Amino acid sequence: MNNPAICVQPDADTPELLPILIAPNPILKARAHAVQPGDIERVRSLIPRMFGSMYKAPGIGLAAPQVGESLRVVVVDLMPNDQHQPYGLINPEVIATSQELATREEGCLSLPNQFADITRPAKVKVRYLDLSGAKREIEAEGLFAACLQHEIDHLDGVLFVDHLSILKRNMIMRRLAKEQRQKRDEQKR
Ligand code: NI
Predict the structure, then answer these.
(1) Is residue 7 part of a domain?
(2) 38 CA to middle of ligand 1, Å?
């Protein structure tokens, strides 16, 4: 997820960045695999690179399928008061949602420059494993709740535009395809 109001400079020691896939891409539509104990080393090296790519973009959340890794891993950093507050979530699950809904504008690093108002539960409880493999739960509201739901959606192949009517979704996807085509044409020149 991205938030145009937040612009973060990448750290000097940013690890090797991962290219972010742009929709439509079949990896973005696939259900990601749960992280197994045997994947933990891969995930430990993946997470810092995901943070690096997210800060560079800049974004406030990124899911592993967006960098071509079909694994249930998400990183989030809302940068409250311009301070880092990084969350690395392994196998995250939404285990409770409020009845109350909230609507906010969302964007996505895999759909650059596209934004739409999305309605979701206002509060969620999320269970996940941290980098040490410990089970954790967090309760989130506001932007944090929307961001967690947006990123966890990515693990099930769901993009924010999938919450819109087919008409609105097609409009955004066509606009994205056109802008990407123009960008490629400009790069060729
Ligand atoms: Ni996204």
Answers:
(1) no
(2) 27
